[in-house]
């Protein structure tokens, strides 16, 4: 089978996602038959350069995508025996807050958790303080109290069962559940 016929058959059988034209460069030339010749490896596809053009995003669209990515992080970690929201978590909570303000019909459950150190009663109270700290932060951004519910699980639902500092740190958390 002739290469031109094979190429035409491939064009019919396989839909092309993107086809970009390329200009000639000093490394390549077009011969009398219109085919590319030269030493450049960029023409390994028979002279056709394929690929997508990266979209140009507005700053508002870039911010929206950044917040969308931040909202995938729904766990806020706390220091030992503390319920204050740490500054490194602010961006995550702000992304959730912006979403909730823009979507007033969406509700979120904020879970408070603690590690196993301390009495069960103390850890329930600590988990509640942690959940309330997140809710207070969100409310300060304009999220309506009716959009938020809180629950404390204390030490009852650990993420990590290892009894070491790393495991304890993973269990000291607040979780935003939609």
Automatic annotation (TrEMBL):
Localization terms from the record: Cell outer membrane
Protein name: Peptidoglycan-associated lipoprotein
Biased composition (Polar residues): 23-40
PROSITE patterns for the chain: OMPA_1, OMPA_2, PROKAR_LIPOPROTEIN
SUPFAM superfamilies referenced in this protein's UniProt entry, alphabetically: OmpA-like
InterPro entries noted in UniProt: Bact_OuterMem_StrucFunc, OMP_bac, OmpA-like, OMPA-like_CS, OmpA-like_sf, Pal, Pal_lipo_C
Similarity section: Belongs to the Pal lipoprotein family.
Parts forming coiled coils: none
Known partners and oligomeric status: The Tol-Pal system is composed of five core proteins: the inner membrane proteins TolA, TolQ and TolR, the periplasmic protein TolB and the outer membrane protein Pal. They form a network linking the inner and outer membranes and the peptidoglycan layer.
Topology in the lipid bilayer: Lipid-anchor
Signal peptide per UniProt: 1-20
């Amino acid at each position: 089978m002739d290469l031109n016929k094979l190429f035409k058959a491939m064009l019919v059988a396989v839909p092309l996602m993107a086809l970009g034209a390329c200009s000639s460069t000093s490394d390549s030339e077009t011969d009398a038959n219109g085919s590319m010749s030269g030493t450049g490896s960029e023409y390994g596809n028979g002279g056709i350069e394929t690929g997508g053009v990266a979209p140009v995003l507005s700053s508002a669209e870039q911010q929206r995508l950044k917040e969308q990515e931040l909202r995938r992080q729904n766990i806020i970690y706390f220091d030992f025996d503390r319920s204050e929201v740490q500054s490194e978590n602010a961006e995550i909570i702000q992304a959730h807050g912006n979403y909730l303000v823009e979507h007033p019909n969406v509700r979120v459950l904020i879970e408070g958790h603690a590690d196993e150190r301390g009495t069960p009663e103390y850890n329930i109270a600590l988990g509640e303080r942690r959940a309330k700290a997140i809710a207070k932060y969100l409310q300060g951004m304009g999220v309506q109290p009716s959009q938020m519910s809180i629950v404390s699980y204390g030490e009852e639902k650990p993420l990590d069962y290892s009894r070491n500092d790393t495991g304890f740190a993973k269990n000291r958390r607040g979780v935003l559940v939609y």
